[in-house]
Structure formats: C-alpha cells, structure tokens
Amino acid sequence: MRRLIIVSASVALAFLVLGAAPAHSRHVKASLQPVNGSGIGGFVNLEGLPKGGTIITVHATGLTPGTEYLSLYYENHICELEPYSADDVIGHYVGNAAGTATVNSRVGDDLDEINSVSVRTAGDFTLRACADTHPGE
Questions:
Q1: Is pLDDT at 78 greater than 90 in this prediction?
Q2: Which of 13, 26, 119, 127 is deepest in the core (most CB within 10 A)?
Q3: Where residue 89 falls among pLDDT bands split at 50, 70, 90?
C-alpha cells in the first residue's frame, strides 16, 4: 500500500511538472539593461497568445520626465536596428514625473521570434536600454 502511494505521488508530480512546462514557455519576463550609462531600467513581459502573436508590455524606469521614448522589438538579441517596419513599434510614451512609463501592444510575431526589446529616445532613436528576451539562444 505504501509503495502504491509513493508511485501515485510520483506520477502525479510528473504530470504537474510536464503540464506546467508549456505555460512557462508562453511567458517571458526580462530585465531592461541600461545602455551607455543611461540609468534606464525596468522590465519587459511577453505573453505568447494561443492562436499566434504576442502581447508585449514594457515598464521603463529612470526616464527623464517629459521626454518622449519609444520601444521596438527585434529578431536579434542586442536591440540592433533592423530594416524598419512600423509593425516593430511597441509604442511611444513620455516619462512621468517619477521617471517611469508603461506601454503595451499586441504584435503579430510569435514569442519565439522576439529576441530583444528596446527603450529608445524618440527624437533620434538613441538606444537607452535593452532586454534580451531569450538569452543564450
């Protein structure tokens, strides 16, 4: 009887672990790393949608209040500008009095195609922060 309980518990645990894996593969949270001493940080959340596409949320901190920024997503891991497409823009935003802002967007690309997300100054596209959403790949 005791052996049956242990085996049953082991099987139940295996199903829990295996069942949880797909849920984790549809969500990524990555830290925004400051570029060139910008002091901008925060995080990005990416949620893969069941029928394709991704919801991207950027929460940036350390922004200059009143300054306009924009966030883009990329296939590369280093937020290097690629051939420009308006579809790659997550959104435009302005740093509030506390130096923070949040923007989100639903994009057509799947989660596994989005390898980095940036914070850039809107006026000149200067890279201020970058999050590698799939490091090591």
A1: yes
A2: 119
A3: very high
Q: Quick one: tokens of 28?
A: 């990524």
Is residue 88 within 8 A of residue 72, CB to CB? The reply is yes
Token pair for residue 61?
């901190």
Going by pLDDT thresholds of 50, 70 and 90, the confidence category of residue 86 is confident
pTM of the model: 0.81
Distances (CA, A) of 79 to 3, 17, 20, 98, 117: 54, 33, 30, 25, 6
Other CB atoms within 10 Å distance of the CB of residue 69: 25
Q: For 10, phi and psi rounded to 5 degrees?
A: -65, -45
Domain boundaries, the chain: 26-132
Task: Tell me the longest C-alpha to C-alpha distance in the chain.
Answer: 71
CA 89 vs. chain centroid, Å, equals: 13
Residue with tokens 């596209």: 125
